[in-house]
Backbone:
């Protein structure tokens, strides 16, 4: 009975750490989704060549023109750190601390335009990586995210819809 208790305690601890890593990754993914939709979708642009490297300055966020080839290959060589409020890092293994801040990477996939309704949709792949208390407790999330912009005026410098009328 004592041996099984120790085993069950280890399983519970591993499950807790995996959940912490998943929550960290999901928070970074949610931030990336939010960032894309800011300023009426103004951040949602086509990708550019990303030089690589990890950046902790959120003012430098960029949309890359290439997807991460293998998001599960760790450590990541490109991406942006996200520091949620109250996140404690820097002391791996300490209770309540995270080994590192979560990361995200945004890749541009393409654009479609529906001229009959004046909607342009940009598609992105969002990858996020979260660590728990140690770098061996990680989680990676991936999603496709679309941002649509409506153009309903002939004054739009980009696109417009002919709504008929006089």
Residues:
């Amino acid at each position: 009975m004592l041996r099984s208790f120790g085993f069950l305690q280890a399983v519970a601890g591993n499950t807790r750490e995996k959940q912490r890593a998943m929550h960290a990754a999901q928070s970074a993914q949610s931030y990336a989704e939010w960032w894309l939709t800011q300023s009426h979708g103004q951040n949602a642009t086509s990708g550019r060549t990303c030089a690589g490297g990890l950046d902790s300055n959120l003012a430098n966020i960029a949309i890359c023109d290439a997807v991460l080839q293998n998001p599960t290959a760790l450590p990541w060589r490109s991406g942006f750190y996200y520091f949620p409020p109250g996140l404690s890092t820097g002391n791996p293994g300490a209770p309540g601390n995270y080994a590192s801040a979560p990361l995200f990477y945004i890749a541009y996939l393409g654009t479609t335009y529906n001229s009959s309704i004046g909607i342009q949709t940009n598609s992105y792949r969002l990858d996020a990586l979260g660590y728990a208390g140690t770098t061996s407790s990680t989680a990676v999330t991936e999603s496709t995210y679309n941002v649509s912009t409506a153009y309903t005026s002939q004054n739009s410098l980009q696109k417009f819809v002919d709504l008929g009328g006089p």
